[in-house]
Amino acid sequence: MIPLITLIGIWSISALNALPGLAVSPILGKLSAIFPHSTKLDIQMLSSLPSLLIIPFIILSGKLTEKINNIWLLQIGLGIFAVSGILYLLSTKMWQLVAVSALLGVGSGLIVPLSTGLISRFFTGAYRTKQFGLSSAITNVTLVLATILTGYLAEVNWHLPFLVYLFPLVSIVLSFYLKKNISPLPAPAMHLETADSSFGRFGIQIKHLMQIVGFYGLATYLVIIVSFNLPFLMKEYHFSSGNSGLMISLFFLAIMALGFVLNRIVDFCGSKTKFYSLLSIALGMALILVSRTEWLIGLGCIFAGLGYGVIQPIAYDKTTLTAIPSKVTLALAFVMAMNYLAILLCPFIINVFKDMLHIETQQFAFIFNMIIALAAAVWAYFKQGTFLFNDKT
Question: Which of 1, 11, 184, 308 is most buried (CB neighbours < 10 A)?
Fold first, then answer.
């Protein structure tokens, strides 16, 4: 048992994972008017620079957790995150916004692996699985609520959406309760680090970790097209942009929903958990394609979200089994970095295959990813007894 205030502190860090880049989204269409001399590259950097810098700093943070106090590292990251929020509010030139975006990426990258690393420190077994589910749910519900909030704030003043980047100030206060209640790794775990050779000289089962990293990257790539490509598809279907925003919200809410009952799902599905999840993603893509009616598209978004909502926290939970206790956060850092890498690469992958096949329709991304999801589901079915796919508790 841990104090409720400590648990809220861990949850608050999970919520922060949804924020990078969020405040920029509602003002992207206005930036050319706000900064008439800005270039297309400037605008692209403003939206993509945080994700680009998050990736190396996630890995750096994971490595630093072995060397320095994790709560100090968390507080440094939260401080940088909060300072970037203040600087965003004060910025009046495009180059300032771009520079602050880089700072935001640094701060966010430092705290991302700690959001899951602290769960692995405070919880074990089924309790850990449950908390990873809750962490995923909190991240995604924050994403939905903050998207709505920043959209309204942008209508008042283009600076106001950046207020959401001040939320780390709350987490800084809560981090002192984390510091009070965190304990060093138990002695048996310390002994395990030197006695168990199955983890190799690096303390990580690299083969198993790379399997999780690759699978998690694939799953993220499969579903992120709902966020990237659905607005263009619905425009092709002659729906309004407001409708596409609603569908994307359903997608993220579906990711959130199953996080609250993750243990029950894993207990019920066992070694077929990832198989059913991939089938759900493929079904979601099919429903989006099969009809130009809003309710079927919405249902497709829900099925895609439900599948990913199970895969994401399970990937984090499985990662904790691939490393000795002092290396778990580093292992989680590699997995979480893959999330941002998949998001960055997704548009390029789709465009490369569209150009190769000379296809212009927006349906292509969903057809392509549906086929991949079905192939991955077959793979998961036949490999359900392996480390990667066996999720029996």
Answer: 308
Say yes or no to pLDDT of 18 above 90. Answer: no
d(CA 283, CA 186): 45
State the Cα–Cα distance between residues 289 and 271, nearest whole angstrom: 29
CB atoms within 10 A of CB 149: 17
Token pair 């066992």: residue: 270
Q: Which residues contact 174 (CB under 8 A, 6 or more apart)?
A: 5, 8, 9, 12
Tell me the average pLDDT across 147-172. 89
Could you count the other beta carbons within 10 Å of the beta carbon of residue 172?
17
Q: Map tokens 């292992």 to a residue.
A: 331
Give dist(CA 70, CA 249) in Å, integer. Answer: 34
Q: Is the dihedral of CA 35, 36, 42, 48 positive or negative?
A: positive
Would you say the C-alpha torsion 256, 259, 261, 264 has a positive or negative sign?
positive
What would the two tokens of residue 200 be? 């190799």
pTM here is 0.87
Residue 192: which pLDDT band, with cuts at 50, 70 and 90? Answer: very low
Cβ–Cβ under 8 Å, residues 131 and 121 = no
